[in-house]
Amino acid sequence: MAACGRSRRRADAMEVLYFAWVRQKVGLGSERVSPPPAVTDIGGLMDWLSSRSAGHAEAFAHGKQIRAAVNQEFCTRDHPVRAGDEVAFFPPVTGG
Amino acid sequence: MATIRVQEAPFDVAAETAALSAGRVDVGGIASFLGLCRADDGLAALVLEHYPGMTERALAGIVAEAEGRWPLTGCTVIHRVGRILPGEPIVLVLAASRHRTAALEACAFLIDWLKTGAPFWKREEFADGQSRWVEARASDDAAAAKWG
User: Gene3D superfamilies of this UniProt entry (chain B) (predicted)?
Assistant: First the structure.
């Protein structure tokens, strides 16, 4: 039914979350994105996200200072990403 | 039976400590670390942000690691988020065991790993309205790494 369309998740979408100064530079706390098939890992996703806005570009220009998590586990740049993942980008943690 | 909480409200150190030995007589020692907000460089407040969901998961993983390394009878990790004023507590780590060595070592391990392994971020606010994100320190990475 057409009424279902609005709430249905796009099959190729992933949720991307931003924290601390990454969130401030991007200007969003989270967004749902559908990267092209060529984007297969965290590094590729960072490159692709950079092109979405001036804020994204500014945040990811500091790429070496950005850490990532996939499905709430810390990961490195070569970690795969796929549809349905929860991906997060943030600075090195400073709790305690 | 670990207690793990992320909260805005202050916590009661005495009550949390008492809870680790309430109703039991096998606890020989409880080691504690209480982290406080300092007023360096005219700091007016710290604002702590975290990643809900991942934070609790990361803390549970760190606690499980401690429980695997030392024979603990219990432990507690409480971390505050939101706006914290100088002098106020930020984090409480308690580790209880039959003997002091396990309690003391586990407590030190927990706070060392928490600092580098749990998704919290501190922003400093100053009296003049300026604000800046706290940068991670290499000494914290080294402290966490020494546990192997």
Answer: Molybdopterin biosynthesis MoaE subunit
**What domains does chain A contain, in order, with CATH numbers?**
19-90 (3.10.20.30)
Q: How far is B135 from chain A (nearest CA, A)?
A: 7
CATH code at position B118 = 3.90.1170.40
A93 and B48: CB-CB below 8 Å?
no
Q: How far apart are CA A4 and CA A44, in angstroms?
A: 32
Q: What angle do CA B33, B38, B44 make, to 5 degrees?
A: 140
Query: In this predicted model, what pLDDT tens digit does every residue of B80-105 receive, in sequence order?
Result: 999 999 999 999 999 999 999 999 99
- Which residue of chain A comes nearest to B35, CA vs CA? A96
Q: How far is Cα B136 from Cα A7, in angstroms, rounded to an integer?
A: 39
The verdict on ipTM greater than 0.90 is: yes
Give the CA angle between residues B41, B136, A72 to the nearest 5°.
Answer: 135
Give tens-digit pLDDT for B99-129. Answer: 999 999 999 999 999 999 999 999 999 999 9
What is the domain range of residue B37? 3-145
Whole-angstrom Cα distance, residue B133 to residue A91? 9
pLDDT at B1 over 90: no
Asked if the model's pLDDT at residue A5 lies above 50, the reply is: no
* Helices and strands (H and E) in chain B: how many: 4, 8
Cα B38 to Cα A76, A91, B32, distances in angstroms: 33, 22, 19
- Number of independent structural domains in chain B: 1
State chain B's mean pLDDT as an integer. 97
